Structure formats: structure tokens, C-alpha cells
Amino acid sequence: MPRHLSSILVIGLGLLAAPLAAQSATPIIGTWKADLKDQDRKDAPRQVVVRSDSSASWSRETVRWRLKADSIMIALGGEWVTYRLQAKGNRLTLSGGDLAKPVSLTRLGPPTARADSVPVPPDPDVTQ
Fold it and tell me: What is the pTM of this model?
């Protein structure tokens, strides 16, 4: 195989693999709905939208999120709150943090866009 053809093939495969790697690296991106058993809880959201721009929204709340090992950190009130995270396919379970008991969510689909008028909250680790 000519050298330039093999280079083009490698570049092409890399371009195809990049979006797949990004999706698998962040399996929590999407719109999620709480299971029926968790719908009436006061300490857990009914529906959550997690976006790739590091923002997440539920009700009227928009927060910044960060993944860390088996946890998700959410910036609330200028501080990180850490929840244990289990994601598998279209199922997501959060526990710990300020939750009285685990909450289970099912993916409904892709995330909705964040309105330009709603900023991503600042990162608590960044000094302003």
C-alpha cells in the first residue's frame, strides 16, 4: 500500500473514532427521567438534562458537573457536592451527597440545548 494512502486511512479512522470515544467517555450526556418510585421524592429531581458543555439542569436549577472515577461532582452554592454514579446503558443511579437514598434515572434521549441566557455556573476550583 502506498505510504500516502495508508496515512489517509489512519487519519480517516481516527476521525471516525473520535466521536465514538467522546460518547463512551461521557455516558451520562442526555435527558434523564427519574423512575416512577422516585418521582415524588423531595430530595431528587424528576428530570435531569446533562450536557457536554459541563452544565446540567433540573427544574429551574442549572449547575456545573465534573466526572471523577465512579462519581459525579456537582457545583452547588459555590461548592462541589459528590455523588456516587453508576451508569450502564440507558440507566443511571446516583447515591450519596445530599440524597437520602439512591435515585434511579432512565435516559429519554439527547440533551436539550442550554439557552444562551443561562450561563454555566463558575467552577468552584477556579479563583476569580
Answer: 0.73
